[in-house]
């Protein structure tokens, strides 16, 4: 008689996935890869890790199918796997935000700006986009913007915003977004625009969550 227990096998498999994700550097790598595919050298630079350490973590993620690769000439590019990985990352962030006061304080920095400024869900944003009522502002780097962005979004990195503010139409509401709910770039941008008299809101989620919902993306 077989001792195989399908329930035990399932939870063992789940525990193995959780073990692979149970490292801060791997979660950081997944966050960067969620913005678009990148080579190991660039991922090492973005995370501050050595190339060897980055490669080791990527191999763990690849074996668990969290990332996939493709060759581009001599380079190997990493992208997210085909499963609902962005949803897993979003769920982890939501749980951390629910249980950790320190993380909520980090999101609210500086000076609790995120709590003072209105946010908008992507469902509401889609309605306003269809009516041409908003200007989408992507405040990530030009590199991240080139890898993928919301349709018709204007790219002005946060540190360039004060000098390039005239590029924004003043007769429409501005919706700023960045890398995700823990990214404070959109908060800082929204606070600056609000001080300058713009009608502005922040996208409650970010680019990875937008992609995870299966919504249109431009490159």
TrEMBL record:
Xref: Pfam families: HTH_20 (PF12840), Rhodanese (PF00581)
GO molecular function: DNA-binding transcription factor activity
SMART domains per UniProt: HTH_ARSR, RHOD
Alphabetized InterPro entries for the sequence: ArsR-like_HTH, GlpE_sulfurtransferase, HTH_ArsR_DNA-bd_dom, Rhodanese-like_dom, Rhodanese-like_dom_sf, WH-like_DNA-bd_sf, WH_DNA-bd_sf
Domain of life of the organism encoding this protein: Bacteria
Signal sequence residues: none
Domain HTH arsR-type: 6-100
Residue intervals of the Rhodanese domain: 130-219
Record protein name field: ArsR family transcriptional regulator
């Amino acid at each position: 008689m077989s001792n195989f227990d399908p329930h035990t096998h399932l939870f063992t498999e789940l525990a193995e996935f959780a073990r692979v994700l149970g490292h801060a550097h791997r979660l950081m790598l997944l966050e960067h890869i969620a913005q678009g595919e990148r080579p190991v050298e660039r991922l090492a630079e973005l995370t501050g890790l050595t190339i060897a350490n980055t490669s080791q973590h990527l191999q763990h993620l690849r074996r668990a199918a969290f990332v996939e690769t493709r060759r581009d000439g001599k380079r190997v590019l990493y992208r997210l796997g085909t499963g609902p990985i962005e949803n897993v990352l979003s769920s982890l962030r939501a749980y951390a935000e629910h249980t950790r006061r320190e993380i909520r304080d980090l999101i609210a920095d500086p000076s609790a700006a995120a709590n003072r400024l209105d946010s908008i869900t992507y469902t509401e944003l889609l309605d306003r986009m269809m009516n041409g009522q908003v200007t989408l502002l992507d405040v990530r780097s030009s590199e991240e913007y080139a890898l993928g962005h919301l349709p018709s979004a204007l790219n002005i990195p946060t540190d360039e915003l004060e000098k390039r503010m005239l590029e924004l139409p003043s007769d429409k509401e501005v919706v700023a977004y960045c890398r995700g709910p823990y990214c404070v770039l959109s908060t800082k941008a929204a606070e600056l625009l609000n001080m300058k008299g713009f009608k502005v809101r922040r996208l409650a989620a970010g680019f990875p969550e937008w992609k995870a919902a299966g919504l249109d993306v431009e490159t």
